[in-house]
Design brief:
- The complex is a heterotrimer of chains A (about 220), B (about 140) and C (about 575).
- Chain B has about 140 residues and is mainly alpha-helical.
- In chain B, about 65% of the residues lie in helices and about 0% in strands.
- In chain B, helix 2 packs antiparallel against helix 3.
- With about 575 residues, chain C is an all-alpha fold.
- Chain C has one domain: Cytochrome c oxidase-like, subunit I domain (Cytochrome C Oxidase, Chain A).
- In chain C, about 65% of the residues lie in helices and about 0% in strands.
- Chain C has 16 helices and no strands.
- Chain C is globular and about 70 Å long.
- Classes of the chains: A mainly alpha (about 220), B mainly alpha (about 140), C mainly alpha (about 575).
- Chains in contact: A-B, A-C, B-C.
Chain lengths: ~220, ~140, ~575
């Protein structure tokens, strides 16, 4: 499509127009993502309204320390992403590569922690559809299963977005290494930054809504074990 | 749609309509390192505050407090990290309308759930008394 | 209406490159529009075939050809294919892709590669659906209601939901592309209130596509996961709430009705203007009403759920909100009608479709108000009255608009005219066949015949026979254009702007060059700059020189480009 020597694709007039188009296009995409996750948050709210106690008890089986650690990882990766974009804007390729690597590092740490969490839940037989087994109060069983289903579905979808993000990040890293970006043209870096921050944003809501509902309960909180 | 425009107008308009030439578009986008680190600090404090408030029993207030903090953190990210504070009105409109329609989805769905119990109180609909049911 | 001395341009988008690669890897919005046209035409006739099978079975009250299970599969496939794989992508994918850049004076849409990608995603979704057809179908109804779809149905639900998920994704990308294109790619001087109304309506459509479709997508995934993993998000036995599925489904699927009808509303605005040779009366109101319809469409979904055990209070709210949609819809109908007044109306094929559209859309909309009232809906819910109502909107409305637009822009797309006599004949056949198909259904629905049954009470037979007869006529009306439009590609009379219509898309050659315009167009007037009061309709006199003539004292110059 684009002329090999010019960063402006043939159907645009100016760099500015192309950049604006990309920004709005990206935000429209994020709007679809907001509605996508929003539908799940609505489902979450409905079932939490229906099973308030079961959600609280089931949530106390989450390890909030892991979730909190992951929250920090994502926030840090967001900050490094901001610095990556501003390095690209200033044409500092070394800075761009370094901050992208840092972003990827913390993103990967997030997924590693997530993996251990999932394994832990698997051993505790918390996974609906696979091995869910509720040993707590029987009247909470349905609500707890619903909680865990939503937990796995929402965090799973979020983790999928993280994986896609890391894939994109590798691509951005390689192209940055090849020197494709300049202060005139760094749209892909900036657009990827928006995506990455959005993934962070989702987690900021997932963390309190999934991990902390039962944090004020006494230890053991009525769950099994 | 004729091409009989005068020279002045051509000069004025040979840029895409969606693209004012004299906007403040070139104001640089990225935020300063100081601002960025301040936002970072706020986000970390917010996370700690989330955990801290969740560990207390605030009764019905636990979730509203947690959500308020989360919304605050999200707003910081959107405004600063995602540059919406420095963006054009169109971007802002997209952001606002996506949340607006999300609120519609929440609001009208819960218009149902919050009033279902009340519906069950209408005797003619749910009463086991066949005479009342007929009415 | 006959143009003299018109010849095809030497180089245009159809002959600039050859070979299958130049089509399957094209990023030209015009070619992508044609790719869409071919794919949705296939889906249209496939879905129409199932409709004929349904009508054939309903010729007699007892089961003759199919048992209940087969019948269930036929109406499900009819709905799934025609809604998700024909109506939703129909006008945006074909006419929208082809015309938006032409109408706004751009070289292409904002993201040409994304545009091609969205066609491929649509094809992937279609393949899922065709696979479902091939291996035994699906019987849940196009609405996939839970818990039947998740727990009890033993047909190919997962594949069908994934197909819908994919085509939804394609729809999102198309909408996203159009919004950015309309905002950022307009030619110099083309301000918002100079835009053709077709652009306004597609803009409104795109908003719905972008904001509503993701909810459908995730709902489809939830169904697939629930079936696959046997978890119970919508299963009442496990604490799930099937009504939540309906909320999520209709949050998309009610606005989706407007994804289907809004583009047609835009096409009809163009047709009414071109064939009365007048500016659309109340242009701004018609433009804004498209946006109002898009916004209102999001707040009315509960009117599908009055008898679903949803709260009565929510029902009342939804009922009141539903009436709001009537306002902008009526604005359009009244303004079109007012445009006809003292216009130099000509009854070419596209105009016949447009006039048919206005009548059917009005009746379809008004019967929608019956259904939006909770008390009446208790009686009419899930009867043929509902079937007739939404077919008036979707077939009498959306499909008629699509056909009208197809005929109107056919010479623009291919540089050749379809045979006008055959065109008018088929428009009349479609109108007659349509009315004979669906008006009896209002009556049998009102009398109490429920939808989705293959057997019925004998007293309904006369009306059902009428309906089946009508649908056969309708089938003929749809097959005729397939034949003569293909015929015209080779043998049609060469034409450039046979309507002498205004609008930027008619300023360039027909078919357009690959880059649309040889030089950057600069816009100084609104789209419908017709002479206010033609003494003798110049178009009929054939004296007008191209599309460039100006009415005396035409204004419109000097308006600054509005800041976006």
């Amino acid at each position: 499509m684009s002329n090999a020597h010019s960063p402006v694709a043939h159907h645009f007039y100016t760099v500015e127009q192309q950049k604006d188009s990309a920004t709005i296009g990206m935000w429209l995409f994020l709007a679809t993502e907001i509605l996508l996750f929003g539908a799940l948050f609505t489902a979450y709210a409905v079932y939490r309204y229906r099973f308030p106690d079961a959600f609280m008890v089931a949530s106390s089986r989450m390890d909030w320390k892991m979730g909190g650690l992951n929250t920090l990882f994502l926030i840090i990766s967001s900050v490094t992403m901001v610095f990556a974009v501003s390095s690209a804007e200033k044409g500092r390729r070394g800075g761009l590569l370094g901050f992208l690597a840092a972003t990827g590092f913390f993103g990967t740490l997030f997924l590693v922690v997530k993996y251990f969490e999932y394994m832990h839940h698997y051993h505790d037989r918390d996974v609906p559809g696979l091995n869910f087994h509720w040993t707590g109060a029987p009247e909470l069983a349905n609500g707890a299963q619903m909680f865990f289903f939503l937990y796995f579905f929402m965090t799973g979808l979020h983790a999928l977005h993280m994986l896609v993000g890391l894939g994109l990040l590798i691509w951005i890293f390689i192209t940055a290494y090849q020197g494709k970006y300049s202060p005139e043209y760094y749209n892909p870096v900036e657009m990827f930054g928006l995506y990455w921050h959005f993934v962070d944003l989702v987690w900021i809501f997932l963390f309190p809504l999934l991990y902390l509902l039962g944090a004020h309960l006494p230890p053991g909180g009525g769950g099994h074990h | 749609m004729a091409h009989e425009t005068t020279h002045e107008t051509i000069h004025e308009t040979t840029r895409p309509a969606g693209h004012p030439a004299n906007g403040s578009d070139h104001a640089h986008h990225s935020i300063s390192a100081t601002t960025c680190l301040m936002v970072f600090a706020a986000l970390v404090i917010g996370t700690v505050a989330t955990v801290w408030t969740a560990s207390m029993d605030l009764g019905a207030l636990n979730t509203p407090v947690a959500l308020a903090i989360a919304i605050g953190k999200a707003t910081l990210i959107i405004l600063y990290f995602m540059h919406v504070l420095y963006s054009k009105w169109l971007t802002r409109t997209v952001v606002i309308s996506s949340f607006f329609f999300l609120i519609i989805m929440f609001g009208l769905t819960f218009a149902d759930y919050f009033t279902r119990e009340k519906t069950r109180e209408i005797p003619s609909l749910y009463s086991s008394d066949p005479i009342l049911k007929q009415q | 209406m006959i143009e003299e001395n018109v010849s095809l341009p030497r180089i245009h988008y159809l002959n600039s490159h050859y070979g299958w690669k130049s089509w399957l890897f094209t990023t030209d919005h015009k070619r992508i529009g044609l790719l869409y046209m071919i794919s949705i035409t296939l889906m249209f006739f496939l879905g129409g075939f199932f409709a004929l099978l349904i009508r054939l079975e309903l010729l007699t009250p007892q089961a003759d050809m199919f048992n209940a299970d087969t019948y269930n599969k036929f109406f499900t496939l009819h709905g799934v294919i025609l809604i998700f794989f024909f109506l939703v992508p129909s006008i945006p994918g074909t006419l929208g892709n082809f015309l938006i850049p032409l109408m706004i004076g751009a070289k292409d849409v904002a993201f040409p590669k994304l545009n091609l990608l969205s066609w491929y995603i649509f094809v992937i979704g279609s393949l899922f659906t065709l696979w479902v057809v091939a291996v035994g179908g699906i019987d849940t109804g196009w609405t996939f209601y839970t818990p039947y779809s998740t727990t009890f149905a033993n047909t190919h639900v997962i594949a069908a939901t994934l197909g819908v998920f994919f085509t939804g994704f394609s729809s999102i990308l198309t909408g996203l592309n159009f919004i950015v294109t309309i905002h950022k790619m307009r030619a110099p001087g083309l301000t918002w209130f100079r835009l053709p109304l077709f652009i306004w309506s597609l803009y409104a459509t795109s908003i719905i596509q972008v904001l509503a479709t993701p909810v459908l997508g995730i709902t489809m995934v939830l169904i697939a996961v629930e079936r696959f993993a046997k978890v119970g998000i919508f299963d009442p036995a496990l604490g799930g709430d099937p009504v939540l599925f309906q909320h999520m489904f209709w949050f998309y699927s009610h606005p989706a009705v407007y994804i289907m009808i809004l583009p047609s509303l835009g096409v009809v605005s163009e047709l009414i203007s071109a064939f009365t040779w007048k500016r659309v009366f109340g242009y701004k109101f018609v433009a804004i009403s498209s946006l109002m319809i898009a916004i209102f469409s999001f707040i009315v979904w509960g009117h599908h759920m009055y008898v679903s055990s949803m709260s009565i209070y929510a029902g009342m709210l939804f009922s009141i909100l539903s009436y709001l949609v009537a306002v902008p819809s009526a604005v359009k109908v009244f303004n079109w009608t007012a445009t006809l007044y003292k216009g130099s109306v000509s009854y070419d094929t596209p105009m016949l479709y447009a006039l048919g559209f206005i009548g059917l859309f009005t009746i379809g909309g008004l019967t929608g108000l019956f259904l939006a009232s909770m008390g009446l809906d208790r009686h009419l819910h899930d009867t043929y009255f509902v079937i007739a109502h939404f077919h008036l909107i979707m077939v009498g409305g959306a499909v008629m608009g699509y056909f009208g637009g197809l005929h109107y822009w056919w010479p623009k797309m291919f540089g050749r005219m379809y045979p006008e006599w055959w065109g008018r004949l088929s428009a009349l056949i479609v109108f007659v066949g349509f009315n004979l198909s669906f008006f009896p259904q209002f009556i049998i629905g009102y009398l109490g015949m429920p939808r989705r049954y293959h057997v019925y009470a004998p007293e309904f037979q006369v009306l059902n026979v009428m309906s089946t007869a009508g649908s056969s006529i309708l089938g003929v009306g749809y097959l005729l254009p397939l034949v003569y439009l293909i015929w015209s590609l080779r043998y049609g009379k060469v034409a450039a702007n046979p309507w002498k219509a205004k609008g930027l898309e008619w300023e360039t050659a027909s078919p357009p060059p690959p880059e649309n315009f040889l030089e950057q167009p600069i816009v100084t007037e609104e789209a419908y700059n017709y002479p206010t009061r033609p003494a003798h309709s110049p178009r009929h006199a054939g004296k007008l020189t191209g599309g460039l003539a100006q009415p005396a004292g035409a204004t419109g110059k000097g308006r600054e480009a509005e800041v976006v």
